[in-house]
Write a structure and sequence with these properties.
- This protein has 387 residues and is α+β, with helices and mostly antiparallel strands.
- The protein has two domains: 198 residues, Ribosomal Protein S5, domain 2, CATH 3.30.230.10; 172 residues, Alpha-Beta Plaits.
- Helices cover 41% and strands 23% of the residues.
- Strand 3 and strand 4 form a beta hairpin.
- The radius of gyration is 21 Å and the shape is globular.
- The model has no long low-confidence stretch (mean pLDDT 92).
Length: 387
């Protein structure tokens, strides 16, 4: 079962011998389609899921943040007066957000709290973005300034890019901050225009965790991004979002073979994502499923970020009669797949797909049906400015 407000509040009370002043949350996400398009100014179609990072907190001495991670059973502390890089770890994400907020002119106030989450780490469900957005939400409630979801998402992305050192796009933080219950959100990653798209009736989304992991900072993610930038430069455009398939086929000879394949994925994925949003609006689950299948094929063949475990999971999902389509989701090299299915068969789907995948690979997967939820919010307590 997903975590609830009381779970993190209970840990806070055990740790500090009193109830927290506030509880905030920020959800993870799963992306239906639109993979590796966000940092190419393209289109993505994610939803905020009912797994989140929660922070229970109270004011503390100004100039300091002290946090206990219930998931790692570790404590950390840092000064708000002078930010210094330390060894890589979960605390650097909080510190990076504080640095990004202060650099943008936000007044910061000290707090202490407990962090607890149920977004699987390293699974491609954006546990790091959820932590960043939840941290920004905590700073907002302590200091009493207005919560501006899009601006906070951009500052969270900046923290991950410039403090943590991962060249992620804007999608993860943006959907964590702005998700809408019962909807996926079509995001234009250039304009940041958000277009909620309702789920068709009777359709469920299953997250299929392969139980394999990758280290994003050490993966080939940054290499793929550099390849896309080189392709855009060769085409003479700002980003690959500005190239359609007709232009690509006409001028592909400008690129070496590897760069051609990377560019072809991004350009075709943008077209698939727009078509998928339209299929959702029309309630056309078979078309949406077909587009998801095509997306996985492109990610495996052209972008080369799938893995044997992800391919096995996708095959197991597609073999179930209730499945409309399935694909890897997230940066790749491990983590999760996502499937679209008939909601009436969700329990049978989860059992049979898990068993089939484990028989193929020897890995014990986690398969769960998720709900689309709202983005980051203050769950309990009253902001300082309203006291």
């Amino acid at each position: 079962m997903p975590l609830e407000q009381g779970d993190v509040a209970a840990v806070f009370e055990k740790h500090f011998q009193r109830a927290p002043r506030w509880v905030v949350r920020a959800p993870g996400r799963v992306n239906l389609i639109g993979e590796h398009t966000d940092y190419n100014d393209g289109f993505v179609l994610p939803l905020a899921i009912d797994r989140a990072i929660w922070i229970a907190l109270e004011p503390w001495e100004d100039g300091c943040v002290a946090v206990h991670s219930a998931d790692f059973e570790q404590a950390g502390e840092f000064s708000l007066e002078q930010f210094e890089h330390a060894q890589a770890g979960w605390l650097e994400y909080l510190k990076g957000v504080a640095w990004s907020l202060r650099d943008a002119g936000y007044a910061l106030a000290g707090w202490r709290g407990v962090v607890k989450g149920d977004v699987p780490r390293g699974a491609g469900l954006s546990s790091s973005a959820a932590l960043e957005v939840a941290t920004a939400r905590a700073f907002a409630v302590v200091a009493g300034w207005d919560w501006e979801p899009v601006k906070m998402a951009k500052l969270g992305q900046r923290a991950e890019n410039r403090w943590v050192g991962v060249n992620c796009g804007i999608m993860d933080q943006l959907i964590s901050a702005t998700g809408r219950a019962g909807h996926a959100v079509l995001i234009d990653c250039r304009s940041l225009e958000l277009s909620p798209v309702p789920f068709p009736r009777g359709i469920a989304v299953a997250i299929l965790d392969t139980a394999t992991r990758r280290g994003l900072v050490d993966s080939e993610y940054n290499e793929r991004r550099a390849c896309c930038e080189a392709a855009a430069k060769a085409f003479g455009v700002r980003a690959l979002r500005d190239v359609d398939l007709a232009r690509f086929h006409r001028d592909a000879a400008l690129l070496d073979e590897v760069t051609q394949r990377r560019a072809r994925h991004v350009i075709s994925e943008n077209e698939r994502t727009l078509a998928a949003a339209e299929a959702m609006r029309c309630g056309d689950a078979p078309t949406l499923g077909r587009l998801m299948n095509e997306s996985h094929r492109s990610l495996d063949d052209d972008y080369q970020v799938s893995s044997s475990a992800l391919n096995a999971m996708v095959e197991s999902a597609r073999a179930h009669p209730a499945c409309y389509g399935a694909r890897m989701t997230g940066a790749g090299f491990g983590g999760c797949a996502v499937a679209l299915l008939d909601a009436a068969s969700a329990d049978d789907f989860a059992r049979r797909v898990a068993a089939d995948y484990q028989a193929k690979t020897g890995h014990a997967p986690a398969v769960y049906v998720c709900q689309a939820t709202d983005g980051a919010d203050l769950v309990s307590g009253v902001p300082v400015a309203d006291d």
